[in-house]
Design goal:
Elements: H1 19-60, H2 78-92, E1 105-115, E2 124-126, H3 136-140, E3 149-151, E4 155-169, E5 172-189, E6 201-204, E7 210-214, E8 220-222, E9 227-230, H4 237-241, H5 243-251, H6 261-293, H7 299-309, H8 314-328, H9 335-338, H10 344-355, H11 359-367, H12 372-383, H13 385-401, H14 404-409, H15 419-429, H16 436-457, H17 466-469
Antiparallel strand pairs: 1-5, 1-7, 2-6, 3-5, 4-5, 6-9, 8-9
Helix pairs in contact: 1-16, 5-16, 6-10, 6-13, 6-15, 10-13, 11-12, 13-16, 15-16
């Protein structure tokens, strides 16, 4: 008699997976985990890059605080690029940076529209006596384009009796039917005078007339849309698209010397960062080698104290450090920042790296009569190049972005500031509202050295020749 418990139909038999199928299953699981990890990292990187891109685009706009943020604005439109290039050529024979110089003849057109049944009136063209930019540059400017510019009478060059246009009032936009007219005029440089960086322009029209087109998009609309204003009607390509970046160098100037403060701040930051990196490398390599290889009394206590020092914020000791530098007479000098080196973390990196170097290399050097200093310089340092580069980049980044300590020890003159402190002074110079175009451009430029250094040297972060150094 057959036992019903032991009876199994053909459909109930589960096939046993083969070894190849099991291997494929585990391979799919590994790739799924890798996809999740890299997908998450890519998502985070996209968010960070998106913020970076938005900040860069905002620095190009005439109104960086525009809400809602628009990605299509005048500075990214190719039609304005060509116009800015040509206007720069006409104004100063400088198609990239523009300007207004003797012999200039800048040709410009504006097109206005009005509702059907209403009459279009000729706009009033003016080169206003306007200072370039604001703040420090406005305080030292002496030459104005208005003193040398002569505007011709506007000439009607085109008409359109049936046109659809958009009238904007505040946040409300209304589509209307009407007709339009285009006027052309020329701005000439009269006489012999200095080269002027900017050519401001204002075009006023009666209420109801809407500016629908012009040779170059206006910088802003004033008096409820009745006046179109251009900060520079002959900007050149770079002077138009990267106006804020040009202004960083031309408008952040010293009131006493007239030199570019941004350039001085950048040079100061490079000098201080390089000095701090060299001191950091010296202490990190020597102390890391001593703690990793040399046997001396109190080595563990020194290492423990170094770890403890990493836990103390710099704000806790800055008063005592400030008094020391004051007594030494180093305040308001770059040496007060360069010599304030805290290399505890870098010492730890070098110590851990030196401990992984095979002892056979050190023993061979000792047999040859090498001293500890010679072993460090000739044997350990070449092998530790990946760690040295890591310490260099981390140290440069920390010194370049350091803000608190330079703010405390360097407060005059303005030319002696580092770049982060200089950007703060730039913010304060423009009052509470701030010139955000200038501030964003300066902040963006300050990130470029660190990015370039990381991109150039990041391939040295991994890999070294230690494993092959002891192969026979």
């Amino acid at each position: 008699m057959t036992n019903p418990v032991l009876t199994m139909t053909q459909n109930e038999v589960k096939p046993v997976p083969s070894m190849a199928e099991i291997a494929q299953f585990h391979a799919r699981r590994r790739w799924a985990k890798v996809a999740w990890v890299y997908g998450s990292l890519l998502f985070v990187a996209t968010l960070m890059l998106g913020t970076f891109v938005v900040a860069f685009l905002a620095s190009l706009k005439d109104d960086p605080l525009e809400q809602p943020f628009k990605f299509n604005f005048a500075q990214v439109q190719p039609s304005n690029w060509g116009a800015a290039y040509q206007l720069g050529r006409e104004g100063n024979n400088a198609p990239m940076f523009g300007g207004f110089a003797p012999g200039a003849a800048v040709n410009f057109t504006v097109t206005y529209a009005v509702e059907a049944g209403k009459e279009l009136k000729t706009p009033v063209i003016e080169v206003p006596r306007r200072r370039p930019g604001t703040g420090m540059a406005a305080a030292i400017v002496k030459d104005f384009a208005a003193d040398y510019a002569q505007v011709s009478e506007p000439v009607l060059v085109a008409s359109n009796n049936n046109i659809t246009f958009v009238q904007t009032r505040g946040n409300r936009q209304t589509t209307k039917q009407g007709h339009s007219q285009t006027w052309a005029f020329t701005i000439r440089y009269q006489g012999d005078g200095p080269e002027i960086a900017t050519l401001p322009l204002s075009v006023a029209a009666p209420a109801g007339q809407v500016l629908i087109d012009s040779t170059l998009a206006p910088t802003k609309m004033e008096r409820r849309g009745r006046v179109a204003a251009w900060d520079n009607a002959a900007p050149g390509l770079i002077g138009y698209v990267f106006k804020s970046y040009v202004r960083v160098y031309t408008e952040s100037v010293s009131l006493t010397t007239g030199k570019s403060l941004f350039m001085s701040w950048t040079i100061n930051s490079f000098f201080i960062a390089i000095g701090k990196v060299l001191l950091t490398l010296f202490f990190a390599c020597t102390a890391g080698y001593a703690l990793a290889r040399l046997k001396f009394t109190g080595a563990r206590a020194v290492f423990a104290f170094m770890l403890f020092s990493m836990m103390i914020p710099a704000q806790v000791t800055f008063i005592s450090n400030y008094l020391i530098y004051k007594n030494l007479g180093l305040l308001n000098t770059p040496w007060a920042v360069i010599t304030a080196v805290i290399a505890s973390g870098q010492v730890l990196i070098m110590k851990q790296f030196f401990e992984n170097i095979p002892k056979e290399l050190e023993e061979a050097a000792i047999i040859d009569g090498a001293s500890p200093a010679l072993i460090l310089w000739k044997v350990f340092m070449p092998l530790a190049m990946p760690a040295i580069l890591s310490v260099t980049i981390l140290g440069f980044q920390g010194a370049w972005n350091d803000f608190f300590w330079p703010l405390v020890v360097i407060n005059s003159p303005v030319d002696a500031f580092t770049l982060p402190v200089g950007l703060l002074s730039l913010r304060n110079a423009y009052g509470f509202a701030g010139d955000w175009n200038l501030i964003l451009a300066g902040a963006f430029l300050s990130t470029l050295p660190v990015l370039l250094i990381f991109i150039i040297f990041q391939r040295y972060f991994v890999g070294n020749d230690i494993s092959s150094a002891v192969k026979g």
